[in-house]
Amino acid sequence: MQVYKYPSPQEAAEIIRRPVLDLGEIESRVRPVLEEVKHRGDFALKKFALDFDNMLIDDFEVSEQELLTAADSLDPELKEAIDLAYDNIYRFHQSQMRAEDRVETMPGVTCWRKPVGIEKVGIYIPGGTAPLFSTVLMLGIPASIAGCKEIVLCSPGNHPAIYYCALKCNVTRVFRIGGAQAIAAMAYGTESVPKVHKIFGPGNQYVTAAKQLVTQSGVAIDMPAGPSEVAVLADETAHPAFVAADLLSQAEHGKDSQVLLVSTSGKLIDETLTEVQRQLDLLPRKDMAEGALENSRAVLVENTDQAMQLLNSYAPEHLILAVKNPEEAGEKVLNAGSVFLGHYTPESCGDYASGTNHTLPTNGYARAYSGVSVDSFVKKITYQQITHDGLRGIGQTVMKMAEAEQLDAHKNAVEVRLK
Asked: Whole-structure pTM over 0.85, yes or no?
């Protein structure tokens, strides 16, 4: 990790910079895949499965019997852990389903909003080096609570836990498809895979590029995303071993991940970096974590206000406040995907089982985006109802404004009723 001490404004700009990807090169590889799937459907999916994964597949859909058999084979202790995580995530997300009040804006004029689940949603679960079955819970649970009628899951992975989570979350169809071609299949539809209205889920740089490109065809996505990241604010009360473990928990995602340590204590930084190296040597995914640490920074600042200014500029996906008064520091957070307060709140609990969602904005998008919630799976449709007396009360206002905008038909829609 690069170490900065009392950085200047110019150095601060360097600190918050993410690793740069060659988006043009990535998109140039992804576009032909999208076009091929769009125009040739299942044939293209079979071709890419053979070309990219050396797999000859005739039927991409995973049958219900396969799902049940895989679930039955799951280790009982892992199943129990998933069940507890499911309950916590469900409980937190269920609380987001609150009825909205009807508002009488003036006598006889009533307005309200009604949440309606997006009819068809797609969930992408990467295969890669880690079977992210926890993401099935994070996306499937709010989709089910929101009332989405069709939940389509695509994943190249066939880990039994992925299928068990899919069953628990009422996922309607599961397909063995990965990469940019899976995003294309859900965006455009094929003979086997239904077209969806919104696509969710993490993935590598090609999956991320595919998600952003299909939005040009009218398909919504959860959010722009990049490699996983964590920022830790730690003072002299923090435990170096805890801080090091939190940094490495994100660094092990991949070489393109990034971690940031900000502290008011030089001693804490030195001890944490020593602990990082000690723990790193014990990790099975050491090579990946080492690659991420090359893009990572430790920063010594004078006080907490400076630290929070830097962290808000960085806008991390995950922000851990390992300080004496975490709630006080938490009040100063303006930009972050999810915040973890105190010395005993590791980010990994949010990744799996505390209840909050781990699908969060990365790459600085926390300045404008929220993490996934039930709201991500619903549309808020506005309603209004106006009585005859209400129209009399509001009508002159509407006619005057329509006349000023030279929209006479708008004015007439009110005037004809008042006559």
From this structure: yes
